[in-house]
Amino acid sequence: MAIQCDVCGKKPGKGNKYSYRGKKKYLGGVGQKVTGKSIRFHEPNLQVLQCQVGGSVQKLRVCVKCIRGGNIQRPVKRKPFQIQAGMI
After folding, report:
1. CB neighbour list of residue 61: distance below 8 Å, 6 or more residues apart
2. Domain, as residue range, for 41
3. Nearest Cα to 53, choosing from 73, 33, 77, 36?
4. Assuming Cys at both sites, which of 10, 19, 64, 86 could form a disulfide with 36, CB separation 3.0 to 4.6 Å?
5. Global confidence as pTM
6. Is 52 contained in some domain?
7. Pairwise CA distance, residues 5 & 2, whole Å
8. What is the DSSP letter of 53?
């Protein structure tokens, strides 16, 4: 299974991590120099949730951006509380 959101398809992004040495110019140094570069990955924040898909409930990997944006529908665990008419 890929590290990917099942709703929007967000995947890991690729970037570089730089390591520096030296003191910055605005602090009185001669400037920072790059001494190394390595590849890194920006992973999406995925959560495994139970979601309502059609008429069934499935476990999906969903990114937090989709959860906060309301792009998924959570299943109803139980019916809401109701007072019966004859009980009052």
Report:
1. 1, 4, 5, 6, 46, 47, 48
2. 13-75
3. 73
4. 19
5. 0.67
6. yes
7. 9
8. E
Query: Each residue of 9-55: pLDDT tens digit?
Result: 999 999 999 999 999 999 999 999 999 999 999 999 999 999 998 88
42 lies in some domain = yes
How many domains does one find in the chain? Answer: 1
Considering the domain boundaries, does residue 85 fall inside one?
A: no
The three-state secondary structure class of 64 is helix
Q: What is the rounded CA–CA span in Å between residue 9 and residue 2?
A: 10
- Tokens 């995925």 found at: 46
Q: What is the CATH number of the domain that holds 58?
A: 2.30.170
Is 83 a domain residue?
no
Residue 14 CA to residue 12 CA, distance in Å, equals 7
